[in-house]
Design a protein that fits this description.
By secondary structure, the chain is mainly α. It contains nine helices and two strands, in the order αααββαααααα. It has a two-stranded antiparallel ribbon. Helix 1 crosses helix 3.
């Protein structure tokens, strides 16, 4: 099942529509709500471009002006609401994202695919540094999740829970991979080390070329 190509691909547009699904708001209130509900921990939110995103959503008919607030000498605030087309787009887009796995390209995966350019002893040192940072993230993440759970239903914390689970899984994998390098049980590690110490590329490293 392929992911449908959408008129707007910016995840911030999705976050804005999901926020307006709650009630009509002006852009400043949208930004406040996203912050208050912690959506900036799961979505890369550039608040400076939020007004542009709202304008693009209006251009495509997904949101519309529902009111213009005037309070004394304060500047006018345009209130936007979700249109029927916007509700349909929100539902379809979210359904796609939940149901269809998409290949993503985390930079750590890129680094792992190219780490042969580093000496295995250096990789061990660097991975130990990473593991230490991951363990701190897991510990602080658990504390934060427990604190938030006191006031928020789990439904509103599932993305934080997922992030914590993924960080813990990465830490577990790094820990095991480190052991394989250090104990010499990782297939190819001797050739990897030999190359960095002699400059000679082992036959098994060139077999696929």
């Amino acid at each position: 099942m392929a992911m449908k190509r959408r008129k707007l691909g910016n995840p911030l547009a999705l976050a804005v529509m999901a926020t307006l699904w709650q009630k009509p708001m002006h852009p400043y209130e949208i930004a406040q709500t996203l912050r208050r509900q912690g959506k900036d921990t799961s979505t890369k939110i550039n608040y400076g471009s939020l007004y542009t995103v709202v304008q693009n959503l209006e251009k495509h008919g997904f949101v519309e002006v529902t009111d213009v607030e005037r309070q004394g000498n304060r500047p006018e605030r345009t209130v936007y609401g979700l249109t029927d087309a916007g509700r349909e787009e929100l539902t379809e887009w979210l359904s796609d994202l939940v149901a269809v796995p998409v290949k993503e390209y985390p930079i750590f995966e890129t680094a792992l695919s190219l780490m042969g350019a580093l000496h295995p002893d250096e990789v061990v040192r660097l991975l130990r540094e990473r593991l230490s940072a991951l363990e701190v993230q897991v510990a602080s993440g658990r504390g934060a999740l427990e604190k938030l759970s006191e006031t928020l239903p789990r439904l509103f914390l599932v993305e934080t829970e997922y992030q914590l689970h993924m960080t813990a899984a990465q830490a577990e994998w790094v820990r095991g991979f480190l052991t394989e390098i250090e104990e010499g049980t990782l297939p190819g590690v001797d050739g990897w080390r030999h190359f960095h110490e002699t400059g000679e590329l082992p036959p098994e490293f060139t077999a696929s070329t």
